[in-house]
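anyone seen this seq b4? input:
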Amino acid sequence: MPKFWLLLWLGLLGLPASGVAGEVRRAYEMQPGGEYLAPDPRVKVGKIWNFLNAPAKKGKQLGNQSMVFERTYWNWGAITPEEMAVRQGEIYIFNWKNGGRSRDLLARFEYRQTRTREAVWSQVDFVRGAHGTLRSVFMVTGDDFTQHGRIYAWRFTLVDGNRILAQAKSFIW
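predicted toks r here
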């Protein structure tokens, strides 16, 4: 009972009671979309991988067989030059994990490109019943890639409602 009165008096005086009660307070960062950053330790962004799917320069052969395979994998089924051109661009793969309860999550990929400077483009992947290890693939290909250029900054966010659970971003973002 004395702890209650102490906390009440500290609250009336406007003093922080976190040291006395052992309460942990977090400062939430408001995002432009009305979302707030409240990390969940059970939701983690793991390996982030990107691949530039562009033709090799004339006379330059790729010595790395895994890169030859990747290009073949992403271009599988493209026969005509027009089909190949539509598939050229940048591909980002985000591996992430939801160790908590199964829930619907929104995976959002925001990026800036060289020719549009500070304009922020975004793609979303809505995952129903997300649980365990998952993968989100985002492709900036075709006209988006040829007209706006390469990606120079990006941010990947996992959102539950208006709460940001996990986030990863490039150094420049």
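The first strand starts at residue 29 and ends at 30. The CA atoms of residues 103 and 129 lie 5 Å apart. kinda curious what u guys think
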